[in-house]
Amino acid sequence: MKNSNFLRIYTEIVNEKLPENNLECILNALWPAGRDFDNSLKLGICISGSGVLYSDYGSQNFREDNAMIIFPNQKYKLYAYEPHTKWVCMETDVYRLFGESSLINAEYAYKLLKESYDNSIIISGSKYNHIKDIIKKILSASSDKLEYKIDFVALHMCELFLELKKFTPTTKHSVISGNSNVPDVIKPAIKTIENQYNKEIKIDELASICYLSPAGFRRKFNEAMGVSPKSYLTNVRIKMAQLLLKRTDLTICEIASRVGYANVSPFGRSFKLITGCSPKEYRDKFGKPKLKDPYPIIYSNSLEKFRIGAWYAIDAKYLSDEFIRDIARAGINLIFVGYDYSLEREFILKYSYLYGIECILVDNSLFKGEKLRIDDYMSSSAFLGNMIIEYPMYHDLGVIGKRIESYSKKLHDKIPFVVLYPMYASGKQMGIDDYRQYINTFADNCIEKVLCVNIYPCYIGHEYKKLTYKDYLQNLSIVSEACRKNNLDMWIIIQSISFHESVRIPDKIDLRWQMYCCLSFGAKSITHFCYCLPVKRPGSIDVFSGAMISIKGEKTDTWYNAREVNYEIHRLSDTYMSHNHLGAFLVNEDSELPYMHFENQYTDFKYIRKLNCDKPLLVGCFEKANGNGVAFTLVNMTDLWKNESVVVSFETVPCKKLCVYKNGYANESLETTYTVELSCGEGVFVTLDF
Q1: What is the per-residue pLDDT for 33?
Q2: What is the pLDDT of residues 27-40, one digit of tens each?
Q3: What is the helix (H) or strand (E) element at residue 521, kind and residue range?
Q4: CB 85 within 8 A of CB 13
Q5: Is 107 exposed, middle or buried (0-12, 13-18, 19+ CB in 10 A)?
Q6: Domain map of the chain by residue range?
Q7: Domain spanning 307-573, CATH class
Q8: Is 398 left (phi over 0), alpha (psi -120 to 50) or beta?
Q9: Are 388 and 336 in contact (CB under 8 A)?
Q10: CA atoms within 13 A of residue 5's CA, in its CB half-sphere
Q11: Which of 167, 453, 529, 531 could lock onto 310 through a cystine, CB 3.0 to 4.6 A?
Q12: Regarding predicted confidence, which is higher, 650 or 315?
């Protein structure tokens, strides 16, 4: 029989009552799950009585026949409402358990544990009887003296993790927090605290939304939650801070600000009161290794920041706070959230804000022209705007204009988002044959703040030869002109996926080339289509492949390619966003490359004296928004199929400083002449300060 000294089963009698209105006493009493073993996981079934489980997540009521799961590194404490409340419990070093089992692949089991869930939970209700049954099987197997006891326990443990992995965030929230037992009257306050913990929240405001007096609200809240509203808010803030300390490189001061503290001193005091250690000590113990992260999460409070977005960013099967963190770690700071995810919307907004992501929400009521139903999310710090309509026809202009006007009156600081057709759409689709008129009419008459178009240029020919949409630059040019004329921000949705047998999966060269072309025409945001594989619509001929996240929820080569290019753009984005676009022109225009053409090329950029290159280039022209300076892009426009590098030498007019951003990194020069090699699809951003 295998050694099982890392596993024990026992009966726990709970007699201690919950201290009244003393959060400090409760939190100081929380005990690590691993009191007997390292990496300890604890399971239990309540045999009799009732009470409350306190953990570093919050409080959850329990009663007879409820189950309990305490994950590794979680602190907890059981209190009894009735004397002699009894639990049957099992505790094990979960890593040794899987390592000792001869039937379980340890790496697979560890992955399941990581993906299942990581907060203490009470399992209650008939809906989750199958999970309680699995826990009972684990307890039964743990008490046996069979030769293969460890294997049986490990098998059932994997079965448990697979079931927990299926929880949606909404389900997790209701099971974990015990909100199913919270009186309806204070639920609006709970929701407000958990959605707006980063803002100043006044008791009078919480009482008002619950239709109670402040005194009555405090009494009801204390009765239901066991703590005051202020203590509950502090708990939520510190829980979010713990995640940021473990999973990001933000400074402690930045984390304090992000979770709602005006300065770091009260944050430090609250953190130590609840966790028993300072934020620095917590990060040293639970945080990432102290190595410089080449891909830190992008946080910016600037309204003028460059946004890199993701379409179809969410797959509910894999949704968790880590899933959203991985979106941010791909260099994405904007996501589009469909109306299919209305149940998960609160969770998505909460963790998007935590990881520096903004959200454009697709609300079906707006598509239908119905009354706005945004009260559930309009106060979220992650909420950037709403999709008004995708692909309007020309004759929809009046209706769309009224919807945007109505939206902007109510939400003047949010974006009423519209996606217009690309140039390759048919006249029947657009309702008009003249594409320039289609774009200009919408830009002139109803579009506000942002003009967005999706253009997917990456096709495939005979023997997998790379082909490029012939009017790609012309399409970008028409949209860019309309944006400059109407003072609109140009947003482009680029291709990061294949959706037809004639369309290729873009590689790193394709992604970089699309992005630098968009920058050359003044784009203020670039969104990837797509992050996750879209759901195929009935009757659609689209066959999607090559998204950043596979159908199994795993990162693909596209995820890593996009991350590298996204961070390259982010590195130069602050400088780029400080300039206004003037126009673009071509050098060595090649008639054999059909995409190497666009009308109304810019001819007044006098700051480049000489430009030597024997290959085609795209040059975007800019002037500094505030200050005395100009900038330009240089993009290698050789055939993407040939994978050719080019050498570019240029001389500028005299300036105080010349800076060339290559791979996103600044290379300063006091000379006015410069030579740079551009690989296939690569671009640079050059600034001149006078």
Answers
A1: 44
A2: 555 554 444 445 68
A3: none
A4: yes
A5: exposed
A6: 7-179, 182-286, 307-573, 580-689
A7: alpha beta
A8: alpha
A9: no
A10: 1
A11: 531
A12: 650
Count CA atoms closer than 13 A to 276's CA, side-chain side: 11
- Distance, in Å, from the CA atom of 143 to the CA atom of 273, rounded to the nearest integer, reads 39
- Whether the CB-CB separation of 185 and 220 falls below 8 Å is answered with yes
CATH number of the 7-179 domain: 2.60.120.10
| CA distance readout (Å), 95 to 285, 434, 522 | 19, 65, 52
User: Quick one: pLDDT band at residue 274, thresholds 50, 70, 90?
Assistant: confident
- In this prediction, residue 179 has a pLDDT band, given cuts at 50, 70 and 90, of very low
Q: Which long-range contacts (CB under 8 A, 24 or more apart) does 599-606 make?
A: 599/474, 599/477, 600/477, 600/481, 605/630, 605/632, 606/653
Classify the phi-psi angles of 78: left when phi > 0, otherwise alpha if psi is within -120 to 50, otherwise beta: beta
Strands 307-310 and 334-337: parallel
Grade residue 205 by pLDDT with cuts at 50, 70 and 90.
very high
**Is residue 662 scored above 50 in pLDDT?**
yes
Q: Write out pLDDT tens, residues 68-109.
A: 888 877 778 888 888 889 999 988 888 888 888 877 777 777
Residue the block writes with tokens 């309540």: 46
List, in sequence order, every residue forming a beta bridge with 647; answer none if it has no partner.
Answer: 677
- Match 């006098």 to its residue by tokens: 606
Q: What is the pLDDT of residue 32?
A: 47
Q: Does 517 have pLDDT greater than 70?
A: yes
pLDDT band at 540 (very low <50, low <70, confident <90, very high): low
The span from the first CA to the last CA of the chain, in angstroms, equals 80
Q: Which two tokens stand for residue 523?
A: 């784009």
DSSP secondary structure of 581-635 = EEEEEEES--TTSTTS--SS------SEEEEE-SS-EEEEEEEESSSSEEEEEEE
Pick the CATH number of 580-689 from 3.30.70, 3.30.60, 2.40.10, 2.60.40: 2.60.40
Candidates 12, 156, 150; CA nearest to 88 is 12
Q: What is the spatial distance between Cα 396 and Cα 380, in angstroms, rounded to a whole number?
A: 31
Can you tell me the distance from the alpha carbon of 445 to that of 396, in angstroms, rounded to the nearest whole number?
Answer: 12
- CATH number, span 182-286: 1.10.10.60
Residue 319: which pLDDT band, with cuts at 50, 70 and 90? confident
CA distances to 192, 318, 338, 341, 623 from 169, in Å = 17, 10, 16, 11, 46
Please say if the pLDDT value at position 650 is more than 70.
yes
Neighbours of 389 (CB within 10 A): 19
Select from 368, 370, 372 the least CA-distant residue to 385: 372
Residues 6+ apart with CB under 8 A from 73: 32, 33, 34, 286
Dump pLDDT digits (tens) for 490-502.
999 999 999 988 9
Task: Give the β-pairing of 665-669 and 657-662.
Answer: antiparallel
Backbone angles phi, psi at 592, to 5 degrees: -80, -10
